[in-house]
Design brief:
The chain contains six helices and eleven strands. By secondary structure, it is of the alpha/beta class. The protein has two domains: 129 residues, 3-Layer(aba) Sandwich (D-Maltodextrin-Binding Protein, domain 2); 86 residues, D-Maltodextrin-Binding Protein, domain 2. Strand 7, helix 4 and strand 8 form a beta-alpha-beta unit. It binds phosphoribosyl ATP and zinc ion.
Length: 225
């Protein structure tokens, strides 16, 4: 990989975090134009390149030092960190700060007719999720055995399709659960977007730019509080 003097920041290409991530950087004075067809957007006024990728790829790109910073949901970061811990792989990144967008929660939900009392009601049952590591950690803490049903999408239709008894999925308004005849029973993780930095060695110039950007982000986020 070629070492660049420019700071590389990974943001979500398109999705729930992409507009807010761009807006945040623009309000910090980073000027750039995004071409929807292109992976990279170069800033005109600062030595910064934006890498526009799938959100799931961002923690790995930061931890492996391919990019210097990333903007990502804490849910995706935490899932990747547990995964790396399990595999005994280092997760070389630090969370610089939580941001003020991307709020959601990872919750357990079951069909409306399910006689749910507590998480123990799921003992031995199958749970569909895209977050197997966060789910496993929660269920282990509670001492509950369950069976996995790993789905990258359409998690909310799994019970009706007969694939699982319950789900563990992201919720914000709760409308998706309701539309699929499910109700939320436990919040297992609360998440916001956050900005993360690779702990791989940086040049002094890059670190100074990161410090400047972070201080501007602090200003922008505080001004809205
Ligand atoms: O293509 P790419 O892989 O980059 O995107 P993605 O489809 O994996 O992610 P995306 O854009 O859906 O979400 C990116 C991040 O936004 C998530 O990792 C969370 O940190 C955050 N976020 C905030 C949410 C939601 N709110 C959210 N409501 N991510 C997903 N949802 C989904 C949820 O999975 C469910 O399908 O929205 C539905 C529930 O919403 P409500 O309002 O009906 O409860
Ligand atoms: Zn994704």
């Amino acid at each position: 990989m070629s070492e660049s003097n420019r700071l590389r920041i990974a943001i979500q290409k398109s999705g729930r975090l992409s507009k807010e991530s761009q807006k945040l950087l623009k309000s910090c004075g980073v000027k750039f134009n995004v071409n929807e067809q292109r992976l990279i957007a170069h800033s005109d006024n600062m030595p910064i390149d934006l890498l526009r990728v799938r959100d799931d790829d961002i923690p790995g790109l930061v931890m492996d030092g391919v990019v210097d910073l990333g903007i990502i949901g804490e849910n995706v970061l935490e899932e990747e960190q547990i995964e790396r811990q399990t595999l005994d792989k280092p997760s070389e990144c630090i969370k610089l700060r939580q941001l003020d967008f991307g709020a959601c929660r990872l919750s357990l939900a079951v069909p409306t007719e399910f006689p749910y009392q507590d998480a123990g009601s799921l003992e031995g049952l199958r749970i569909a999720t895209s977050y197997p590591n966060l789910l496993r950690r929660y269920m282990q803490e509670k001492g509950i055995n369950y069976r996995d049903c790993m789905l990258k999408g359409s998690v909310e239709v799994a019970p009706r399709a007969g694939l699982a008894d319950g789900i563990c999925d992201l919720v914000s308004t709760g409308a998706t659960l309701e539309a699929n005849g499910l109700y939320e029973t436990e919040v297992i993780y609360r998440s916001m977007a956050c900005i993360i930095q690779s702990t791989h060695e940086q040049s002094d110039a890059k670190q100074a730019l990161i410090d400047k950007l972070l201080s501007r982000i602090n200003g922008v986020v505080r001004a809205k509080e």
